[in-house]
Amino acid sequence: MTIGSPEYEIKSLGLSLRVQNPLVAERIYRIDQLTQMTEEEISKIYMIGKGSVREIKEALRKNGLSLRNADSEWMPIHTAPRDGSWVLVYSCFSTKAPDYGVARWDEKHWLLASDYGVKTIFENPTHWMPLPYCPETGQ
After folding, report:
1. Prediction pTM value
2. 58 and 85 together in one domain
3. Nearest CA to 119 among 102, 99, 96, 94?
4. Between 29 and 3, whose confidence is greater?
């Protein structure tokens, strides 16, 4: 922020954000809804650019809030990577426990990882999501 640049305050439901872009301040009137949206959704819905979305993210961060992470949603299994990458899988129709686990595709089946290194077939997964980042490194 440059010295003397104006700030606009967005207030709603006891929350307050300060932003520099008057367009952002004009278009956003429910701060709580921002935390349920991804960057892409905010950009499309409010018709603002990436710089304004970054400004919103920073203002939310200063208030201990964040946007929804698009990578943390369950996706249909047919969209999962088939390159041997480990992912989290889930089955709505599993007849055996567990209903979820860490698995990878091996050309024919989804193989489930275990503590013992034994890989069993995970039958009928219906959904998947990427594994989360490690908390220490963010990678």
Report:
1. 0.48
2. no
3. 102
4. 29
